[in-house]
Amino acid sequence: MSESMAGRRACEGARIGVCVLGCLLLAPSGGLAFLPNFWSRVLTLSWDSYTHQYMTEQALLNITLDTLVRMPAGREGAELGRGFWRAVGEVAQANAAMDFLSSTRSDPVYHFDSERVEGAADMLRQFWLQTLLSIRARDYQGARHSLGRLFHSLQDFYSHSNWVEMGQKSVYLHLLHPEHPAIPLASEDTPTCAECSSTTCRNNILLSQHPPLLTTGYFSTHPAKPVGKCSHGGLLDSSRHQGARGGINKDSTSPLFSPHHYLHGDAARLATAATVAVLEDLRDAVGTASFLRLLSVRQQPALVFVMDTTGSMFEEITAARIRAFSIIHARAKTAQQPGTYLLVPFHDPAVGPVYETEDPEQFMRYLEGLTALGGGDEPEMCLSAVQLALTHSPPLSEIFVFTDASPKDAHLYSAVEALTLEKQSKVSFLLTEDRSFSGTDRGMRKRRESLSPNRFSLYSSLSSISGGLAIFTTNSDIHRVSTIIQDNIAASKVTLSHMESNSVSTHFPFRVDSAVNNVTLHLTGILKHCVLTSPSGQSQSLLDRPGSLAHLESFQGLYRVSLLPPIKPGQWRLSADAEGPITLNAIGDSSVDFLYYFAVVANGTHPGLARVEGSPVAGVPTFLVLAVTGLPPNEEASFSHVTLLGASGEILLKVPLNSSSSSSAGKELVGGMASVPREPFCVRLSGKDGRGNRLERVATEMIQPTHVQIQVLSAPHLVPGNVSTVSFDVMNHGPARHFTLTATDDRGFLTQKGPHRLSVGERGSLRGKVEVRTPGGTDPGSAVTLTLTVRALDTADSNYAVVHLIVIPQDVFPPSCSPMRVEATCPPVCHQASWTVSLAVTDRGHSGLAALQLSKGHGVLTLHLGQEGKPWQQEGKGRDTEGEGRQGSEEPHLLEGEPPLNITGWGGGMPLHVRYTASCCTPRAELIAWDGEGNVRHCHFTSSQQGATDKTSNGAGSIKVALLTLISGLLGARLIM
């Protein structure tokens, strides 16, 4: 997505209540990073700054193109696809969200602030592990979220530290590859900055020791900045007034926000190079196929079936098999990457299992294995199966449900609706209502005359909201009706119009442009009269006789209209008289499409546009951000506005668009709304191609504006055998009222699902939490999708949040070595003196410290517990289980070459203090510390430094190898003591 924005648009936000500079000057405290996204440059008046969004998108694009070039097919079929740009957007938005979420924006560990380098590096490695585990579990959406968070912290290092000021020209490999050398950290009592009283601070970093010391700036008052330390700096940092005044951040090119703005380009280049290096490592670690799947590169659209398998479903199962075979046969002739094939069977009470594969032949075997047995009564567990299908399918999927039974699990409707909107997927129902039978012969359903006529209303509602279809057909017609599956999941399928009507007489306009081929109309309902009119005024009565404009196929519950070539561009119109409701869906083949999201101005410490999670709030200023995809490189298209359309196609609001410049992602467009409409709407994009002809595309999901929000504050990793807490805020933008909150997950790990009743005051908020208990035997890498929905009791207001969680091993954090003091006055004649260093060794994980070893150094390492000077004692144990070494209360010590010392009984979570003393003739040493999970820390120290350095691994030569070993073998090879 492009970022450039014309300067004359800088104050556009003021039109909807944004006072840029004033709001920034009055901003609350928190951390600041490279600017989050394109709008940040408008708010900070720094037009040429590199942002997190830009660096992330460019790195993803470059590595993807490089990957495709390396493949045998090369660049053939270079269009990356709408799914790719959606995936890139997810990574970039997860990156930017670190600056907007209350749980991360002010925590120095997420931003390499306040000299929390060791903790921030550990967090980076945790994000890396989560990404690998998620990819292995095929939770690509979760992997994109953790990858975006990793990129944010990694990029911040180069802006917030003195790495660039050291003169470094390459990336700091130690951050994600602990086997590479580490730069010593400045100790707590080491001054790092000189006073600076101007907006531009040159040469204010004091560190000139050899080897050089690493430091980062402090931001605001949490944690407090020690005297003499560097500040982050800039207008938004209150610590800039404390000694040493000034700052060192390189976040932007503006001296108002970045005292080291003159080094912004250098920091951005290194941050981009580090981002590219991570993607190269990731591609090597997971393989090319999984890497391309992660980014949805040129993937075939997913084929997703949710199949009722009760005895009355024989014809439906047969129709699904025939349709799948036809689709697979057609795809065999294309050069695109394999798509996802997903099958979720259900009846009552069983749901699943989920059959997921990228092998079409395996998918056909799954379908061949289905049998229609049992049943004979209503209802069935349909929504549970749809929930699983949505959880496991990629975003932008089309899901087809075959059933003749109503839902037994209606309580899941809100969660399923939330998942369809979050993934922008469509759900269509093929409902067979054959009224010609009675009784239960051959396992048929009981007489339908005794069932409610509205029993399928939830299906109709879900299809309407998602932009799908609900087709009421018969067993005899299901084979032909299933043609819509092949129509809708063809590659490069776009929607030209989607409208519904309850009127007796209806007019459905739709526009065809020169970039569209193979236009097909699907109409559901019962038509009495139907006339199609072309842009030139020529008409054809579709129900009467064949004509030159279109070919009609009529089935029970569905009319399929194919426009005949040559298809004239322009405004078409379909007029229909119907018995009851009717729905029109107009689709065509085209590469030109768009993606969009809603955003609000975040004018606090991280200026930019923050994506709205869930549905937008009605009546408040909101931005609509769009990216046009698939435009040919030489196409000079322009897009003027979007139209918010009601369910029947009525115009609710026109939103003018400001277009940024073209980029590899297409065109990025931004429109401001002074107030979001209250009525549900879908989004239609309008513009013109290079020849002046009109272009229109429609996103069919119905957005449900609301007066309530739910914001997730924490999305913890899950640990087998432990309870994790997901915290959230419910924000009420209306009068005081009561709500119900419901939580669901796809693994059954929630301790309480609800509904829980909440009372929230007028324009107030309420903090809540749900607990996820992960069973002890759960495999690391298991993905869990948690859906939270909140609904008002007195109105239709509702909203949702979807959280992607991953199960990680019991302990992935290595021990840490914190330097305390170095005592060294080494004379020229080295054998005449000694030096001493004191360290605190701790373990952040669950398993505790397990062993220590002095791997290098001719001195003596002595162990202490608690306050320094108090000897450590291990009751009844010496060096190992065989009793080697010193026993009882004797002070333990280590020498070079001795085996690891078992310290599993050192007791509690208190730090273990160690002191190393050696002759000045041997100025270097290395200590190795293990925890109970086999994670290892290599601690290096020398007589000439002010602090110890360390490097981390999981018992392997590199973090990549270690974590792959961890995933495949679950740390099967561990330290044996």
Helix content: 10-25%
Please tally the β strands and state the result: 41
Mean pLDDT across all amino acids = 82
Walk across the major sheet and give the strand order: 3-2-1-4-5-6
β-strand percent reads 25-35%
Domain Hemicentin/VWA7 galactose-binding: 493-591
Domain VWA7 beta-sandwich: 593-702
Biased composition (Basic and acidic residues): 876-896
InterPro entries: GBD_Hemicentin/VWA7, HMCN1-like_VWA, Ig_VWA7, VWA7, VWA7_4, VWA7_N, vWFA_dom_sf
Describe the structure in your own words:
The protein has 977 residues and is of the alpha+beta class. The chain has 16 helices and 41 strands. Strands 3-2-1-4-5-6 form a six-stranded mixed beta sheet, with helices on both faces. Strands 7-15-9-13-12 form a five-stranded antiparallel beta sheet. A five-stranded antiparallel beta sheet has the order 17-16-18-22-21. Helix 5 packs antiparallel against helix 6. It is elongated, with a radius of gyration of 31 Å. The relative contact order is 0.09. The N terminus and C terminus are likely disordered.
Tell me the layout of helices and strands:
Elements: H1 20-25, H2 38-43, H3 52-70, H4 82-97, H5 117-136, H6 140-160, H7 264-286, H8 288-294, E1 303-308, H9 314-331, E2 341-346, E3 355-357, H10 360-368, H11 382-392, E4 398-403, H12 413-423, E5 426-432, H13 457-466, E6 470-473, H14 478-481, H15 483-488, E7 493-501, E8 505-512, E9 517-524, E10 527-533, E11 539-541, E12 550-555, E13 558-563, E14 570-578, E15 582-589, E16 593-602, E17 608-611, E18 622-629, E19 638-645, E20 651-656, E21 658-663, E22 666-673, E23 681-688, E24 694-703, E25 708-712, E26 723-732, E27 737-745, E28 756-760, E29 765-773, E30 783-792, E31 798-806, E32 815-824, E33 834-843, E34 849-856, E35 860-865, E36 893-894, E37 901-902, E38 912-919, E39 924-931, E40 936-942, E41 949-953, H16 959-969
Parallel strand pairs: 1-2, 1-4, 4-5, 5-6
Antiparallel strand pairs: 2-3, 7-15, 8-14, 9-13, 9-15, 10-11, 10-14, 12-13, 16-17, 16-18, 18-22, 19-20, 19-23, 21-22, 23-24, 25-26, 26-29, 27-28, 27-30, 30-31, 32-33, 33-38, 34-37, 34-39, 35-36, 35-38, 39-40, 40-41
Helix pairs in contact: 3-4, 3-7, 4-6, 5-6, 5-16, 6-7, 7-8, 9-10, 11-12, 12-13
